[in-house]
Amino acid sequence: MDAQHAIITKRDTRSFRSEPVPDEQLTAVLKAARMAGSAKNAQLTRLVVVTDPETKVELAGCGDFTSWIGTTPVVVVFAIPVEEGRLFDVGRMAQNLMVSAHDQGLATCPITFHHQDKMREAIGLPADMEGPMGVVLGIPGPPAPARPRAPRIPLDELVHHERWEG
Ligand SMILES: Cc1cc2nc3c(=O)[nH]c(=O)nc-3n(C[C@H](O)[C@H](O)[C@H](O)COP(=O)(O)O)c2cc1C
């Protein structure tokens, strides 16, 4: 799959088969995440890969829109230092991981963890770290019934040329 096609066709998926993600595929997506650049190449982001069923249920309670993740195959939590962590770095890493997964026929969905006290308890993060975002990963299941694909705004609405008024 070429890069443009992978980016254009990637959709966030919340339906997974119950089988585990093969180790070599998991390693490949983690390698893709690793290559994301970071501000000043500080590389402050760490990944916590969760497959334990009980921990995934705990993670499901860490976000306002994550109740569905408890039975998914893999949840990757992006852990960053509270003081210096950058969400832009996390986003780049997450997108690398998700595009690599899509290229390999795996499904993913980004998720938000709003409740950091619960997060620290769930995966043992120290007080100076937080895990605000994650990605769910697995072999795609049947498409959810009657869930319309989220459209994107037109290019000329998205893009301003030279200045805001342009
Ligand atoms: C920053 C970010 C946070 C998100 N958080 C959640 C979440 O907590 N729960 C969830 O189910 N989906 C979450 N999503 C997925 C969005 O709902 C999804 O990207 C959007 O609906 C577009 O879906 P599509 O790519 O399939 O068209 C998140 C996406 C992004 C980019």
Task: Please provide a written account of the structure.
Helix 2 (23-34) runs antiparallel to helix 4 (87-103). The longest helix is centred in the middle third of the chain and has 17 residues, at 87-103. The chain is of the alpha+beta class. The chain starts with a helix and ends in an 8-residue tail after the last helix. It is globular and about 50 Å long. It has helices at residues 3-9, 23-34, 53-60, 87-103, 116-123, 155-158; strands at residues 46-50, 74-81, 107-112, 129-138. The model has no long low-confidence stretch (mean pLDDT 95). Strands 1-2-4-3 form a four-stranded antiparallel sheet, with helices on both faces.
Short description:
The chain is α+β, with helices and mostly antiparallel strands. It has helices at residues 3-9, 23-34, 53-60, 87-103, 116-123, 155-158, and strands spanning 46-50, 74-81, 107-112, 129-138.
Q: Calculate the mean pLDDT score and round it.
A: 95
| CATH-level-4 superfamily name | NADH Oxidase
Distance between the termini: 35 Å
Bound molecules: flavin mononucleotide
Shape: globular
Our estimate of the beta-strand percent is 15-25%
Helix fraction? 25-40%
Count of strand segments: 4
What number of structural domains do the residues give?
Answer: 1
The assigned CATH architecture is: 3-Layer(aba) Sandwich
Q: What structural class do the secondary elements suggest?
A: alpha+beta
List low-confidence stretches. Answer: none
Order of helices and strands: HHEHEHEHEH
**How are the strands of the largest sheet arranged?**
1-2-4-3
Integer-rounded radius of gyration = 17 Å
Level-1 CATH class name:
Alpha Beta
